[in-house]
Design a protein that fits this description.
Radius of gyration: 20 Å
Number of domains: 2
Distance between the termini: 19 Å
Bound molecules: zinc ion
CATH class of the largest domain: Alpha Beta
Structural class: alpha/beta
Largest sheet: 7 strands, mixed
Number of helices: 11
Shape: globular
């Protein structure tokens, strides 16, 4: 990212690891909608910033205090790389370490992963070794898509056999659908209008699909849940309209679990009556993609155990030197794109 609205290649030196850090040689990366938000100015003005936060690679160098990693190890970094000694981490919220959303360092407070080499702070705590039987093109999905999507389900208090609606079936919504199934949901309702995404949602475990362009989402959810609303709604889009829908379709005592990025407007509105005039025993859960070695190891175990094949979301593949075209396809949502994978 040269500046807001402009991207292209640039030359930078290979980063050096501090005592607790590692430098990773990138092998595979994924482009994320967040990269587009960043280029449009979503996190404020940035210049000469390397984009990207979803990558796997091979350890190139480690600092003197790194105990568990050696050059040559195949590794996955979480998209979020917390400071584990920070008070927020000690309070149980490492993604918020170093200030609100401060665990989000790649392509934000430091250079990201769309480069031949990238730097990882606190390498022992933030890098996971990738099992031999998990290929790079699956492991790379754990960095953000699985971690964020599954978080939506984990924070959703889904009762075993419970009912879940997932608003939008983009890559995070699709992984929230998988997460809801893994958490024991008995009925998963995906809301989505794009046919290719509807189809993928079904293969990932959505029992019902509601097309919001032709159906009344609220009426249909009530019909599917015997008039009560769902136990859990996972909001995976991040608009005022979908958030209102989330409140309306969730039963009293239920949970609205947000994984959407609210990029527009100053306020998000809560429909007062559907919120039980503030007394509906409803939980609104929020979170930023969890990172960390243990988290990544768990996600890799899910992939190794073939409980999910995230590589079905890869609609496009490019070599690193085709990055500009790859970014354009992801950014402009050309050609039914879901995820664009980059080979280095
Ligand atoms: Zn991402």
């Amino acid at each position: 990212m040269r500046e807001i609205g402009s991207v292209g290649f640039t030359e930078k030196p290979i980063p050096e690891p501090g005592p607790n850090d590692a430098v990773v040689r990138t092998t595979t990366a994924l482009i994320c909608t967040s990269d587009s938000h960043t280029v449009r100015g979503g996190i404020g003005p940035r210049t000469d910033l390397t984009l990207g936060h979803e990558a796997v690679g091979v350890v190139h160098a480690v600092g003197s205090e790194v105990a568990n990693l050696r050059p040559g190890d195949r590794v996955l970094s979480g998209a979020i790389t917390p400071d584990w000694g920070d008070p927020a981490s000690q309070n149980g919220f490492p993604s918020q370490s170093g200030g609100p959303l401060g665990g989000f360092k790649f392509a934000n407070s430091k250079d990201g992963v769309f480069a031949e080499y990238f730097h990882v702070n606190e390498a022992d705590a933030n890098l996971a070794k990738i099992p031999d039987d998990v290929p790079d093109d699956r492991a790379v999905y754990c960095a953000d898509m699985l971690s964020t999507g599954f978080m939506g389900a984990e924070k959703g208090n889904i009762p075993i056999g419970g009912t879940v609606a997932v608003l939008a079936q983009g890559p995070v919504g699709l992984m929230a659908t998988v997460g809801a199934r893994l958490c024991g949901a008995g009925l998963v309702i995906g809301v989505e209008s794009v046919p290719a995404r509807q189809k993928l949602a079904r293969t990932y475990g959505a029992d019902e699909i509601i097309d919001f362009t032709t159906e009344d989402v609220e009426a249909r959810v009530l019909e599917l849940t015997g008039g009560t609303g769902v136990d859990t709604t996972i909001e995976a889009l991040g608009t005022d309209a979908t958030f209102r829908t989330a409140i309306r379709i969730t039963r009293p005592g239920g949970t609205v679990s947000n994984v959407g990025y609210f990029g527009e407007g100053d306020y998000v509105h809560i429909p007062r009556a559907d919120w039980g005039v503030g007394m509906a025993d409803m939980t609104i859960a929020t979170g930023l993609c969890p990172g960390g070695r243990l988290r990544m190891e768990r996600l890799l175990r899910i992939v190794a155990g073939r409980r999910v094949d995230p590589s079905r979301m890869t609609t496009h593949e490019f070599a690193f030197d085709e990055m500009e075209r790859a970014f354009e396809i992801s950014d402009k949502k050309i050609d039914d794109v879901i995820k664009v994978l980059i080979r280095f």
